[in-house]
Design a protein that fits this description.
binds copper (II) ion, Immunoglobulin-like, four-stranded mixed β-sheet, 31% strand
């Protein structure tokens, strides 16, 4: 084989490797979950109604065994993401279907409902100002926006119930769940992180790794726009 031919083969091989590396890096950089937009058909002054769910094992995507949040897009489709685009200075009415089992809270203060209209959440239709996680099925997750002072504990369901949702998500309301409803008002434009404060990352150090550290699972952002 001539020197030129060998050089050609090596060059092609190097370019192939380079392409693979660039492709992998780009795929990694673009791996952030989708943003669901609640601003597109929003009329000023009107509230935004959102439906959200929490599941014990999502059954889809990169980490099927992980706990996760999902959100229903305005077109009704469930999306596996925690990035929500919302209009500024707007009332947001959240209906949250909680399908996961719970445990007692490490810190009972996290059972306190804070930062929402009326100072209470509706738990299966009844107003509750505090969730006592030492009773019942404990608390599965929280929905908390630290910068807005919002904290919503989500009571767990009976993990041994016949109709317990073991995934894949989305779970459906004929499966064992608690319906938690609350309203809060978005502030001015900005990115506001939200997260769960129950160390629910089973199999990770102190339960705080894995889904607790990954956008799309147990934390996300409110992308508030003018
Ligand atoms: Cu959680």
């Amino acid at each position: 084989m001539s020197r030129g031919a060998r050089l050609g083969i090596v060059t092609v091989m190097l370019l192939a490797v380079l392409g693979l590396v660039i492709g992998t890096v780009m795929a990694f950089l673009r791996s952030s979950p989708a943003t669901v937009d609640f601003t597109a058909n929003h009329r000023p002054g009107q509230p935004v109604d959102m439906t959200v769910q929490t599941v014990g094992s999502v059954g889809i995507d990169a980490h099927p065994t992980w706990v996760s949040y999902l959100v229903q897009a305005p077109n009704g489709r469930w999306v596996h993401t925690t990035l929500w685009q919302l209009p500024a200075h707007t009332l947001v009415n959240v209906s949250l279907y909680e399908y996961d089992s719970g445990s007692p809270l490490r810190n009972p203060e996290i059972g306190l409902i804070m930062g929402v209209n009326g100072g209470a959440e509706l738990l299966n239709g009844k107003p509750v100002p505090l969730v006592d996680a030492t009773g019942g099925n404990g608390v599965a997750h929280t929905f908390s926006i630290p910068t807005l002072g919002v904290n919503i504990p989500l009571p767990g369901v009976d993990g041994s119930a016949k109709n317990f949702c073991a995934g894949p998500a989305p779970c459906t309301p004929n499966q064992e769940h608690n319906l938690i409803q609350f309203s809060f008002t978005t502030p001015g434009p900005g990115q506001y992180p939200w997260q769960c404060f129950v160390p629910c990352g089973l199999g990770f150090l102190y339960g705080n790794g894995g889904p607790m550290q990954t956008i799309g699972y147990m934390d996300g952002f409110l992308k508030v726009v003018a």
